[in-house]
Amino acid sequence: MSLETIFWSAFLLPLLGALCAGLFSRSSLSGICAIVSSWMSLILLTYVLLPFLQSDKTVLFFSSLIVCSKLSAAFLLLTVLVVATALTQSYLFFQNEFKDGKLHQQKHICWFYSFSLLFLLAMMSVFVSENLGTLWISVEATSLLSAGLVYFSRTNHAIEATWKYLIICSVGIAFALLGTIFIFASSQYGAVEGGSLSFAILEAKSALLQPLLLKLGFIFCLVGYGTKSGVFPLHSWLPDAHSEAPAPASAMLSASLLNCALFAIFKVLKITNLSSCGISCDRACLWAGVITVLAASFFLIKQHGLKRLWAYSSIENVGLMMVAIGLGSAPIFFLQALNHSIVKVSLFCTAGNIIQICGTKELSHISGLLKISPLNAALLLLGGLAVTGTPPFGTFISEWMLLSLSVERHFAVVAVIILVSLTIAFIAIIYHIGRMLIGNVRIEKTNITSIKYSAIPLLLIIVSVALCFVIRPELLGEIK
Amino acid sequence: MIFTLLILSSAIMAVLMVGTGQVRSNIIFYSFQTLLIALTTCVFAYVENEHKHYILALVIFIVKTMGLSLFLLWLTKRIGTARDTGTFLPHPLAMHLSVLLLIFAQILSCQLPHLSKLEDFSAGGTAGISLILTGILFMLTRRLAISQVLGFLTMENGIFLFALTQASGMPLFVEMGIFLDVFVAVMISGLLIFRIKHSFEHIDVTLLTSLKD
After folding, report:
1. Is A20 exposed, middle or buried (0-12, 13-18, 19+ CB in 10 A)?
2. Contact between B10 and B65 (Cβ < 8 Å)
3. ipTM of the prediction
4. Using CA atoms, how far apart are residues B55 and A180, in angstroms rounded to an integer?
5. Backbone phi and psi for residue A187, each to the nearest 5 degrees, phi listed first
6. Where are the domains of chain A?
7. Contact residues, chain B, for A133 at CB < 8 Å
8. Rounded Cα–Cα distance for residues B23 and B91 (Å)
9. Is A66 within 8 Å of A59 (Cβ atoms)?
10. Which of A115, A229, A298, B95 counts the highest number of beta carbons within 10 A?
11. pLDDT band at A341 (very low <50, low <70, confident <90, very high)
């Protein structure tokens, strides 16, 4: 079989899996179908993309609309890995919910698996889009398909969160469409006859694009995709959606969806690189990131929900990635995304277990976790340390590289603000975790989960530690 | 002249939409607005001699003018809401504000560079920006979930008109993808509005405030 066929089948598998998962009426069958198709897709993609990542080639060309650069290949693998692990965890998660009597409808779970796989497909197409238009269509499709995941529990809170998510993101994305049109129009002033939406052409002809229209286009795309990635002050949908979705869905939203929107910003920013407004666009991204990091760290202090806490921590990491994008460093952008995603899946899965054990997601009601479930308590602590960038976890390396790069580029102020924010975030998160771990056991009935429910979060924490020792800047130098 | 008239009357339909609190009339004004946009697209196709725009005009007519409008009318009937009482601005005042927005849109569009071959369609920039701003105003001044959807659709119309007249339209497959996304978005919001009505017994989105930091 040719590489192309294998690549296409990696895209076809989630689609087939989604169809089967939707048709089954038993949740266990549907779950197995979803898990198998997502892991199979990961294996196929690894087979195609790993040799490419190690080779000297810069792009893999599949069709005029589907092109895979090294950065997109890396993100593609990360996204499928995140979704596959989250789906595997969700199989155990839903089993436990059934045991607890919180779920009654098997069919709802089948729909969950089906939507997750379609959502995965939409995210995969974001990374391989070679065209601003198809990029927009894919990003909008990710919102529409993930709305089904947020809606899952069908409670009043979930419905409210889904509504806010759908409306805020759709309006935000509409601005990105306007931005896309501005960029398309900017290419019609002498750069390309009839205009073009292709990234390759736009990047090459960057200097010939009409500067005013290009700048407007970039600003609208930044606002639009920024809404989708939760950049402050456009983040209001994010904590609601993350806290109301079931834990594995929150993991997928936080660890893969946000990367998609950031990747879109990165691609649009690359178009402006060679034009006269390139530097100001870089600066806009950089400062949007810095403000997001700072704001998120303050929001972290007064949180009342466990999953809301991790949602704000995601916003903080989005800010860090925006800074990396603004500094024009694709390797650090990917490294930060990789480390954050791995840890965040682990944290959301652990949060799901803890919420099942304690029966509440309110931080003030959870205490004495060390006595109730030492394993989950340890995972929570380790995850908390990892997400705040403490050594020896992978996030430490990426945040360190980001700080040193910003100092190197003479943005010492940026480095100082980020450092202060990271410190605030560290104190806030450790304070909240500390309150949950120690104290008296206040809950009467506990639903103790066995070790198998914590296997995936544990593995991911180990991966995060391994990343700290494996990643070298030279290894990432080639990702563009 | 006929283009200018067609394009600007679609913007005026949006202004009229802001002026009434009856949900049914709002939807009918939206329907007229998209009909005028479909006609503009037809004229554009004729002038530019581009066949893909005839297809676009047909799709707009079938999907938006007929499909989405009828769906929203059916939804309003099933849910049984007749009036949107509005938020901070009374409807007549909001309508006057949207007229000001139309003037503001004219000023904005004059600042943008124009391609000479599209001189006839320069009013499109004005109408497009005005529709986007009016859509946002509509979303801000309304309470009901269904009005939010209408505001979003008006915005999307503005973006389409802007793309058509300022950039001679995006490639066909991109436009089709956008239509599909918008169509699915409206269907999903429609289903969600049913659920909101079922769970909360109203569809007033300003009262959905239980999730807070």
Report:
1. buried
2. no
3. 0.94
4. 22
5. -80, -5
6. 278-480
7. 170-171, 173-174, 177-178
8. 12
9. no
10. A229
11. very high
Q: Return the SS3 of A350.
A: helix
| Residue B212 located in a structural domain | no
In this structure, is residue B43 part of a structural domain?
yes
Q: What letter does residue A210 receive in the DSSP assignment?
A: -
Q: Per the domain annotation, does B102 fall within a domain? A: yes
Q: What sections of chain B are H helices per DSSP?
A: 2-19, 23-48, 52-59, 69-79, 91-111, 122-141, 145-166, 172-200
B132 touches chain A (CB under 8 A): yes
Q: Is it the case that residue A281 has pLDDT exceeding 80?
A: yes
With 0-12 / 13-18 / 19 or more C-beta atoms within 10 angstroms meaning exposed / middle / buried, residue A477 is exposed
**pLDDT (tens digit per residue) in B111-164:** 888 765 556 667 888 899 999 999 999 999 988 899 999 999 999 999 999 888
**What pLDDT digit, counting tens, does each position of A96-126 carry?**
888 877 777 888 899 999 999 999 999 999 9
Categorize the per-residue pLDDT at B206 as very low, low, confident or very high, splitting at 50, 70 and 90. Answer: confident
Percent of chain A clearing pLDDT 90 (strictly above): 60
Closest alpha carbon within chain A to B159: A178
B208 CB near a chain A CB, below 8 Å?
Answer: yes
- Find the distance separating the first CA and the last CA of chain A, reported in whole Å: 28
Q: Which of A479, A131, A73, A136 is nearest to A271 (CA)?
A: A131
pLDDT of residue A476: 65
| Chain A from 108 to 147: CB within 8 A of any B CB | 131, 133-134, 136-137, 140-141, 144, 147
* Identity of the residue in A144, A180, A304 whose CB atom sits nearest the CB atom of B184: A144
Helix locations, B112-144, DSSP H = 122-141
User: End-to-end alpha-carbon separation of chain B, Å?
Assistant: 54
Compute the half-sphere exposure of residue A172: CA atoms within 13 Å on the CB side of its CA: 26
Half-sphere exposure of A149 (CA within 13 A, CB side): 32
Range of the domain at B21: 2-207
Please state whether A83 falls in left (phi above 0), alpha (psi between -120 and 50) or beta: alpha
A contacts of B191 (beta carbons < 8 Å): none
Look up residue A61 and give its DSSP letter. E
Structure tokens at B166: 């300022």
Asked if A382 and A457 touch (Cβ cutoff 8 Å), the reply is no
Say how far apart CA B202 and CA B193 lie, in whole Å. Answer: 9
**Which residue is listed with tokens 């890396």?**
A74
pLDDT confidence of A474, banded at 50, 70, 90? low
What is the secondary structure of A295-345 as a DSSP string? HHHHHHHT--BHHHHHHHHHHHHHHHHHHHHHTT-HHHHHHHHHHHHHHHH
Tell me the per-residue pLDDT of B4-48, one tens digit each, with 9 for 90 and over.
888 889 999 999 999 888 899 999 999 999 999 999 999 888 888
Reported confidence tier of residue A480, pLDDT bands at 50, 70, 90:
low
Site of tokens 């889009």: A129
CA distance A129 to A138: 8
Residue range A324-351: mean pLDDT, rounded: 93
Give chain B's domain count.
1
Q: Which residues contact A159 (CB under 8 A, 6 or more apart)?
A: A151, B192, B195, B196, B199, B200
Q: What is the pLDDT of residue B203?
A: 85
| Among chain A residues, CA nearest to B172 | A133
- Which of A 183-202 lie inside 8 A of B, CB atoms? 184-185, 188-189, 194-195, 197
Q: What is the pLDDT of residues A131-154, one digit of tens each?
A: 899 999 999 999 999 999 999 988
